[in-house]
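Hmm, how's this folded?
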Amino acid sequence: MIVVMGGRGGGKSYFINQMVGGDVAPIRDGSTQYTGTLTCQAVPTRFGRSKVILIDTPGFDESNSSEAIACAEICRVLAQFYQRGVSLRGFIYLQRITEKKTIGNAASVLKMFRSLCGETKLLKNTILVTTGWQLQQVDEPQGAVQERELRKFWGQMLNQGSTMVRYYGDRDSGVGIVSRILGNEDVPFEPEAELMARGKQ
């Protein structure tokens, strides 16, 4: 199981659709107000001989309410799969390169998952992905400047094992990212009750 997460408009559903070759995850443009009604969607697929479940997650913006809603929903789904014996292999965090400012809540969400799954192991199983490089409005030099800023923002995570890569909007680029996650060991989980309790805080 791989969790695909990030802010609204980061390209989570688009990424998953490219991986499975169909429109199985609804793409939301992020223009509508976040109501807290969105839920995680489990999308089963195959990569070679490996069966993989990609978890499309609710996006979050700069409000504490949307962050709490998204985190609680992600924790609920992880707990359900854990109870069924499905292991977590890692996280893919998507950040749109055209976003002029980094969503501050991203750090809070990832901090939460560090506390849930063990900081060292989780960070090694997390890939920080910049998206939107295939878009015409993305200027390579300007994108590279933003990329350097993101690298500074994510510096502590990168120093402790996370990796940062570009996603170019096609399946081959995505397969390379997923393959990195599949090469990792499983992420350890805490018991469901404690997992759920933390998700509601």
In short: Residues 64-83 form the longest helix (20 residues). Residues 2-21+36-194 form a domain with the Rossmann fold fold (CATH 3.40.50.300). DSSP finds eight helices and six strands in the chain.
